[in-house]
Amino acid sequence: MSAIVFLPGLICDQAVWEDQVKELLHRGFECQVIDYGNADSLTEMAYIALEQAPESFALVGHSMGGRVAMEVARQAPQRITQLVLMDTGYLPLAPGSAGEKERAGRMALIEKARQQGMRIMGQEWMQGMVLPQHLKDEPLCNAILNMIERKTVAQFEAQQTALLTRPDATDVLRSLNCPTLFICGSDDLWSPVSQHEAMSEQVADSIIEVIAHSGHMCTMEQPQAVNQALIHWLQPHPG
Description:
- InterPro entries: AB_hydrolase_1, AB_hydrolase_fold, Carboxylesterase_BioH.
- By secondary structure, this protein is of the alpha/beta class.
- It has helices spanning about 20-25, 40-50, 65-75, 95-115, 120-125, 140-150, 155-165, 170-175, 195-200, 220, 225-235, and strands at about 5, 30-35, 55-60, 80-85, 180-185, 205-210.
- The protein has a 6-stranded parallel sheet, with helices on both faces.
């Protein structure tokens, strides 16, 4: 079985991939989750991933991790055997008022983390990241908040900086020549299905898998559905 490298999203760690790694290890895959440390650019995060990864690997990125995955593809496309981009985007910060609104929102979260701590900030951040009914799922919410709390404010600020300075990845998508799968929660408000359709149009022969009854955090909201999508995609098929 091939090696799989997992790239977590903003202020996420191995917990966001816990169910997927457990299932894929059981099926004989080699799995590795990347830690970006204090990196404050997607380019640097991609470099860190490539330094830690084996020579060739399947690459799976969620949210910010999807953007990192595209930067890995920019730096070393020959090392990626298969690519999965989940609940993510590809465009840079929008110009004008839309970009300023996003910047202000991200800076407000950083300030809240400084003043009240990562967990309190996470309670606000989480509101739009999972389905409203999942906010009543105490184990799920605690798992997300515990993950957020493991990150420092400095790491949160560094990753927000990376997202605010993100490059346009349109050229990367158009250059991809490895099998590519897009996965998106059906009700992802931050990175909607339509955004993944736009990305898929840039990639020859790519496929989209929509995860029902899920928001942005589909690996934790609907882990079994994500597992099945990944297993079907990653396992070799006759012919």
